[in-house]
Amino acid sequence: HFGKPTLLIDMDPQSNSNKGLGIEPSSIDISIYEVLKNSLDINKAVKHTLMEGFDIIPSKLLLSSLSEDDFDLKNPLMILKNSSQIYKIIRENFQKKYHLCCLKRKR
To answer: Which of 44, 68, 84, 99 is packed most tightly, with the most Cβ within 10 A?
Structure first.
């Protein structure tokens, strides 16, 4: 991992990455869904995987149910129309600590 661990941010509601990396759905208290919906601290969503140096911010099926009306307008992550803003917030929080990888399903 070239000096830094990798952080996978799973923005796909199918959340296959979680399962593939050994994260049981029942063990996910805070996912990207809760971060976006409830303005939770994104740092608290990071989960360690079975692979050393590889962490994940997991997804949940509920992510597909989000709409603009679900967001607290004070939350800078609520701008789903402009996903580059979400990735900017992610980079600002994690770029120094991790190599970043974001997965998002095609619409």
So the answer is: 99
pLDDT tens, 42-78? 889 999 998 888 999 999 888 878 765 655 545 544 4
The predicted model scores a pTM of 0.76
Alpha-carbon distance 50 to 38, whole Å? 28
Give dist(CA 37, CA 40) in Å, integer.
8
99-103 and 54-57 strand pairing:
unpaired
What are the Cα distances from residue 82, in Å, to 9, 45, 72, 77, 85?
16, 21, 16, 10, 6
